[in-house]
Amino acid sequence: MESSSGGPGVQPIAFPLLKGQKALVTGANSGIGRATAVALGRVGADVVVNYVSGRDAAEEVVREIEGFGVRAYAHEADVSQEDQVVDMVAAMVKEFGTIDVMVANAGLQRDAPVTDMTLDQWHKVLDVNLTGQFLCAREATKEFLRRGVVPEVSRSAGKIICMSSVHQLIPWAGHVNYASSKGGVLMLMATLSQELAPFRIRVNAVAPGAIRTPINRSAWDTPEAEADLLRLIPYRRVGDPDDIANTVAVLASDLLDYVVGTTIYVDGGMTLFPGFATGG
Ligand code: NAP
Predict the structure, then answer these.
(1) Residues 6 or more apart from 94 whose CB is under 8 A from it?
(2) Ligand 1 pocket residues where CB is under 6 Å
(3) Which of 137, 155, 165, 261 is the most buried (most CB within 10 A)?
């Protein structure tokens, strides 16, 4: 497989790590969410493909996942709306019997310099990126606690994986709503993890660096933009959605059962402060 940046691409994960488990991925009709939903299906999970718009793309993801011989269906819900998230998880429990893995991935940007940023732009990003993750984690947790550990399925009672960003750590001028939402995700994840670990619920985060998806197209879709971006990435390649999907699949599995309350940065070294390689 050739990567979008040339050379050998990311090898998709293919072991039955999540056989018999039920997973829900939010924002799964595009980018990282799409690759993650497919990866979870490939390693044996039944998958709910959440989307908010673009039903056709979601149905395509469903068909791809069904090709692995597991079950999948698409569910439209806006993760920032409490009633829609409650209904989505309830429908999954009805359809699949339970939930084992919640991947709170849906996210967006509404960028502006602070003096131009409207309250609507601020609220929209916080509502989807942070409140949406809270609602998804809360509803999944209710089912994890009700069901408890089923040893034949998994060592844990459930896994929550929050899609964060390197911007939970790296300040980002012109994106104060987005960076604040991801800083919030860090504390959401850590606090939930502290609260829920005694119930054998594992909460962790994955923090992507620059991954080639529609959310950041302008950062890589011309050679000049990509060259600029690569200066921030010590490993000198833009990430592929499968880089994140593989990480989520392994993190959700019992292989990483002792990983609790941690963020895994998947960023080609972006958080290594590359400016200090030659300066400072
Ligand atoms: P993307 O391709 O734009 O996908 C974002 C997904 O979120 C889309 O499926 C979108 O659905 C969905 N979404 C937006 N608002 C929603 C809502 N209210 N309810 C449900 N779903 C909603 O971007 P991506 O890069 O894959 O981003 C996925 C996650 O990774 C985000 O949390 C983002 O912050 C994070 N991340 C990405 C990068 C990167 O470099 N790409 C880096 C760090 C972190 P629609 O298309 O239907 O609106």
Answers:
(1) none
(2) 26-27, 29-33, 50-54, 78-80, 105-108, 128, 163, 165, 208, 210-211, 213-216
(3) 165
